[in-house]
């Protein structure tokens, strides 16, 4: 029996306040979240329905020049030098003057992610905890995405497609764990898009994937496709071969290699394919694969709901394709969130962390706050669900 | 399954072929019918059932991708099934007809309904049915035989590509009433391959499917599967033992790769 | 005013080392460290650095022209910046030394592995993994 109300909020308040700190990749996020105490939480599986109120949700992204990826040490520096400013702004926006008394718990990302940036943020979390005397909770980044997605969309027990710069997984809940049914066998979808964006030397702001999406929208000849490898393996998929292939096409296009018969008409020498066409074909191909493995997992576990989370989840075309797939299944429903929650943020860490806190899971010794680059979704014991 | 898809199939098959929908997989919808595609129905006195597996148009994906996948997978599944059917010891449904451009194949009907509402007799439902006594002899015998089927498949250089407990159908053994004979179905992602990597991935996919679907008993279940798998190779002498070691070694590597895979937010 | 911050380094190979600061030395009077700037690589690619740490805060009434007086927190930040520089420089030297030693003892392959490990540690890794980070 799950009871989310055993741990009482500070000062006999009738609500909880959590501060969430996220910095596992190039986004630094700080969020403050409020959960009212609800009678419905005394028993039963209602963790998707916390009536969470977002008091602040602030994000700052470390952006590199076109053609460049983000290095761990520069990303860590960004987080280090912005973290305090962001926390101050978040507290101010939430109207919190006295964090010592007002905040019940500080939630930080324990992993997975890039080592150096994770270290930067956890130091801020520890400092605030010691300074204010507030409890700490370490959160799995992926579980943060899932719980935020469930809370926002009210999806009770969806198959989750988690798509971001570092992850591509199809997840479903069973017996107190978020179990991974399918995943990438090599690189993540976001990484694939980011790296192609670097080859194209298009800007990294606001995000490389967003700019590929815009280029794909501008494709003039959507009836045609550049044929790419289609590499679904059961519920898993692989993308490195596709990336290598489309990268080589883009390079031939920039070089004007007329011998390439996919790109240039062999008789007239006329260019047949544009950068926009490549972006369009890449998206169509990759997303078809994602939707297919999601549908496989749905069929396998008899689920009717899908929840898309992670940075790539804001892609409108992906959401549209997933929606179409669901329409063709009995009672199929697709749930997605917008960029405030899809893209890494502090509120999602607060949401998952507050659920953990309300189940009595807090850091008892600072030794437990060591962050880790690898932390699989299914390692977390999900005590707040039946 | 949505009415739209049922209509699409009914239109393709015409009203002369009555169909009863039984399941919607990810890729295909499956129906039963009593009509054989080319033997006159007057010959079907026993009211024998057949399976129609239809790959509907997937509207979510680009028409060019859809056409090419449907054709390719229908054709390749038919080819693999017809070849596997001829191999001694391998249990797959018999292929009756194939229409790759429309994504349709006809197969012999296998399996039955499990008692007490546990649904169709695939391995998944069978294991769930036995969850109260998860390690009984019948479960062990069945999983061992499933392992043997995969062993035979791999020994003959075929890979399934999508091994899950839903893709294994259990058929009652007519000679020994309580035993089940596992049949492999759904070769849409199947391939011929002599690569150790493909076999390793195949085993890994199955192991993960067992872990995620039958979590509490997965260790033992996977052990029995691998026993059955290994015994096929071991029965092939020195060469078999050598190949078995290669496959199992790669399987362990693939598993390690999976666990170690960095998961950067 | 409280005690000045210190740091201690201990390892089985070398005698224990203490890092202390000298408040009059320029390196402990800035929040912009020598070793904590953006990497050359992104600067060469045209990065505009907007991630600088903020300057130390002057006490109200103090002027930076004469003898500036900073808030306690800003003093701590400046001290920490210098101390971090000292530690970074020391650790880099240690790594170079370790690398040289190892090169003498081992093959080129070893060297590459050590280089990778050092990079991994610089990137804040756990020190026991060898995978590729997203940004590379």
From TrEMBL, chain A:
Q: Where are the transmembrane segments?
A: none
Give binding positions for substrate.
162-166, 194, 209, 213, 315
Return the cofactor note field: Binds 1 divalent metal cation per subunit.
The principal location of this protein is cytoplasm
**GO CC terms, sorted:** chromatin; cytoplasm; EKC/KEOPS complex; nucleus
User: Which residues of this UniProt protein bind a divalent metal cation?
Assistant: 141, 145, 162, 344
Q: Where in the cell is it found?
A: Cytoplasm; Nucleus
Enzyme Commission number, as recorded: 2.3.1.234
One biological-process term from Gene Ontology? positive regulation of transcription by RNA polymerase II
Q: Which keywords fit this entry according to its UniProt record?
A: Acyltransferase, Cytoplasm, Metal-binding, Nucleus, Transferase, tRNA processing
The chemistry this enzyme catalyses reads: L-threonylcarbamoyladenylate + adenosine(37) in tRNA = N(6)-L-threonylcarbamoyladenosine(37) in tRNA + AMP + H(+)
| Enzyme class, spelled out | transferase
* Pfam families cross-referenced by the UniProt entry: TsaD
Q: Name one GO molecular function term.
A: nucleotidase activity
All copies of domain Gcp-like, residue ranges: 54-350
Cofactor(s) needed, names only, are: a divalent metal cation
Instruction: Indicate yes or no for the key word Acyltransferase.
Output: yes
Family that this chain belongs to: Belongs to the KAE1 / TsaD family.
Identify this protein by name.
N(6)-L-threonylcarbamoyladenine synthase
Lineage start: Eukaryota, Fungi, Dikarya, Ascomycota, Saccharomycotina
Automatic annotation (TrEMBL), chain B:
For this protein, the record's PROSITE patterns field holds: PROTEIN_KINASE_DOM, PROTEIN_KINASE_TYR
This enzyme catalyses:
L-threonyl-[protein] + ATP = O-phospho-L-threonyl-[protein] + ADP + H(+); L-seryl-[protein] + ATP = O-phospho-L-seryl-[protein] + ADP + H(+)
Q: Name one GO biological process term.
A: positive regulation of transcription by RNA polymerase II
| First-tier enzyme category under EC | transferase
Q: What sections of the sequence does the record tag as coiled-coil?
A: none
GO MF term list: ATP binding; ATP hydrolysis activity; protein serine/threonine kinase activity
Q: Which InterPro entries match?
A: Bud32, Kinase-like_dom_sf, Prot_kinase_dom, Tyr_kinase_AS
GO CC annotations on file: chromosome, telomeric region; cytosol; EKC/KEOPS complex; nucleus
Instruction: Identify the keywords attached in UniProt to this record, alphabetized.
Output: Activator, ATP-binding, Chromosome, Cytoplasm, Hydrolase, Kinase, Nucleotide-binding, Nucleus, Phosphoprotein, Serine/threonine-protein kinase, Telomere, Transcription, Transcription regulation, Transferase, tRNA processing
Give its localization.
Chromosome, Telomere; Cytoplasm; Nucleus
Its EC number is 2.7.11.1
Domain annotation Protein kinase: ranges: 16-265
UniProt cross-references to PANTHER family, sorted A to Z = EKC_KEOPS COMPLEX SUBUNIT TP53RK, NON-SPECIFIC SERINE/THREONINE PROTEIN KINASE
Summary of subunit composition and partner proteins = Component of the EKC/KEOPS complex composed of at least BUD32, CGI121, GON7, KAE1 and PCC1; the whole complex dimerizes.
Family of this protein:
Belongs to the protein kinase superfamily. BUD32 family.
Q: What is this protein called?
A: EKC/KEOPS complex subunit BUD32
Gene that encodes it: NDAI0B00840
TrEMBL record, chain C:
Which Pfam family, giving just one, matches this sequence? Answer: Gon7
Major location (coarse): nucleus
Function comment: Component of the EKC/KEOPS complex that is required for the formation of a threonylcarbamoyl group on adenosine at position 37 (t(6)A37) in tRNAs that read codons beginning with adenine. The complex is probably involved in the transfer of the threonylcarbamoyl moiety of threonylcarbamoyl-AMP (TC-AMP) to the N6 group of A37. GON7 likely plays a supporting role to the catalytic subunit KAE1 in the complex. The EKC/KEOPS complex also promotes both telomere uncapping and telomere elongation. The complex is required for efficient recruitment of transcriptional coactivators.
What family does this chain come from, according to its entry?
Belongs to the GON7 family.
> Bias regions of kind Acidic residues — which residues?
117-136
Q: Membrane-spanning residues where?
A: none
Q: Which GO terms describe its cellular component?
A: chromatin; chromosome, telomeric region; EKC/KEOPS complex; nucleus
In Gene Ontology terms, what is a biological process of this protein? cell wall mannoprotein biosynthetic process
Q: What is this protein called?
A: EKC/KEOPS complex subunit GON7
Self-association and partners: Component of the EKC/KEOPS complex composed of at least BUD32, CGI121, GON7, KAE1 and PCC1; the whole complex dimerizes.
Q: Which GO terms describe its molecular function?
A: chromatin DNA binding
Q: Where in the cell is it found?
A: Chromosome, Telomere; Nucleus
Spell out the Basic and acidic residues composition-biased ranges: 105-116
The scientific name of the source species is Naumovozyma dairenensis (strain ATCC 10597 / BCRC 20456 / CBS 421 / NBRC 0211 / NRRL Y-12639) (Saccharomyces dairenensis)
UniProt-annotated stretches for the region Disordered? 30-67, 102-136
Keyword annotations = Activator, Chromosome, Nucleus, Telomere, Transcription, Transcription regulation, tRNA processing
Decide whether keyword Transcription regulation is in the record.
yes
ATP-binding: present as a keyword of the record?
no
């Amino acid at each position: 029996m799950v009871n989310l109300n055993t741990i009482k909020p500070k000062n006999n308040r009738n609500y909880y306040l959590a501060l969430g700190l996220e910095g596992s990749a190039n986004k630094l996020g700080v969020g403050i979240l409020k959960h009212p105490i609800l009678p419905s939480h005394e028993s039963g599986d209602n963790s998707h329905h916390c009536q969470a109120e977002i008091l602040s949700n602030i994000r700052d992204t470390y952006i590199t020049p076109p053609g460049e990826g983000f290095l761990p040490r520069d990303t860590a520096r960004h987080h280090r030098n912005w973290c305090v400013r962001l926390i101050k702004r978040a507290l101010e926006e939430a109207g919190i003057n006295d964090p010592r008394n007002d905040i019940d718990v500080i939630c930080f990302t324990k992993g997975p992610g890039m080592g150096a940036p994770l270290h930067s943020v956890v130091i801020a979390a520890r400092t605030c905890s010691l300074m204010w005397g507030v409890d700490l909770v370490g959160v799995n980044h992926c579980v943060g995405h899932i719980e935020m997605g469930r809370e926002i969309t009210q999806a009770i027990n969806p198959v989750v497609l988690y798509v971001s710069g570092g992850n591509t997984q199809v997840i479903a809940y069973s017996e107190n764990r978020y179990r991974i049914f399918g995943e990438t066998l090599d690189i993540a979808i976001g990484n694939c898009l980011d790296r192609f964006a670097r080859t194209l030397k298009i800007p990294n702001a606001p995000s490389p994937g967003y700019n590929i999406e815009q280029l794909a929208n501008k494709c003039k000849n959507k009836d045609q496709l550049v044929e790419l490898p289609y590499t679904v393996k059961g519920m898993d998929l692989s993308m490195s071969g596709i990336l290598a292939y489309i990268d080589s096409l883009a390079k031939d296009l920039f070089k004007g290699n007329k011998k390439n018969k996919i790109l240039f008409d062999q008789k007239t020498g006329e260019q047949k394919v544009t950068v926009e066409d490549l972006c369009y074909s890449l998206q169509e191909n990759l997303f078809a694969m994602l939707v297919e493995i999601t549908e496989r997992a749905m069929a396998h576990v008899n689920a009717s709901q899908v929840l898309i989370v992670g940075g790539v989840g804001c892609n409108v075309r992906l959401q549209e394709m997933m929606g179409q797939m669901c329409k063709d299944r009995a009672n199929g429903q697709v749930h997605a969130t917008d960029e405030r929650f899809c893209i890494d943020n502090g509120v999602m860490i607060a949401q998952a962390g507050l659920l953990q806190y309300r189940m009595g899971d807090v850091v008892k010794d600072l030794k437990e706050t060591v962050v880790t680059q690898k932390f699989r979704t299914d390692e977390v014991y999900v005590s707040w669900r039946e | 399954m949505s009415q739209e898809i049922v209509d699409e199939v009914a239109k393709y098959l015409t009203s002369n072929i009555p169909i009863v929908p039984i399941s919607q997989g990810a890729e295909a919808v499956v129906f039963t019918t009593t009509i054989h595609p080319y033997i006159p129905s007057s010959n079907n006195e026993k009211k024998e059932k057949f399976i129609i597996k239809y790959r509907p148009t997937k509207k979510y994906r680009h028409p060019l991708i859809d056409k090419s996948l449907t054709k390719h997978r229908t054709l390749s599944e038919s080819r693999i099934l017809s070849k596997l059917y001829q191999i001694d010891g391998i249990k797959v449904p018999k292929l009756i007809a194939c229409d790759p451009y429309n994504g349709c194949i006809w197969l012999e009907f296998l399996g039955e309904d499990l008692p007490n509402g546990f649904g169709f007799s695939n391995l998944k439902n069978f294991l769930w049915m036995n969850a109260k006594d998860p390690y009984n002899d019948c479960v062990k015998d069945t999983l061992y035989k499933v392992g043997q089927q995969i062993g035979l498949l791999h020994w003959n250089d075929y890979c399934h590509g999508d091994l899950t407990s839903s893709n294994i159908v259990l058929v009652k053994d007519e000679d020994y009433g309580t035993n089940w004979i596992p049949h492999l179905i759904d070769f849409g992602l199947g391939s011929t391959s002599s690569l150790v990597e493909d076999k390793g991935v195949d085993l890994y996919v199955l192991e993960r499917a067992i872990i995620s679907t039958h979590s509490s008993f997965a260790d033992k279940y996977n052990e029995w599967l691998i026993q059955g798998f290994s015994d096929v190779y071991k029965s092939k002498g020195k060469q078999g033992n050598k190949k078995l070691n290669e496959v199992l070694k790669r399987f362990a590597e693939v598993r390690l790769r999976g666990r170690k895979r960095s998961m950067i937010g | 005013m409280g005690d000045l911050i210190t740091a201690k380094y201990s390892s089985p190979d070398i005698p224990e080392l203490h890092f202390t600061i000298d408040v009059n030395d320029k390196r402990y009077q800035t929040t912009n460290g020598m070793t904590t700037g953006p990497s050359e690589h992104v600067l060469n690619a045209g990065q505009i650095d907007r991630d600088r740490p903020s300057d130390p805060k002057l006490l109200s009434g103090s002027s930076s022209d004469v003898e500036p007086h900073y808030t306690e927190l800003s003093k701590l930040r400046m001290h920490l910046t210098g101390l971090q520089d000292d530690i970074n420089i020391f650790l880099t030297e240690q790594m170079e030394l370790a690398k040289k030693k190892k090169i003498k003892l081992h093959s080129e392959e070893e060297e590459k592995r050590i280089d990778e490990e050092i990079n991994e540690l610089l990137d804040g890794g756990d020190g026991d993994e060898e995978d590729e980070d997203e940004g590379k």
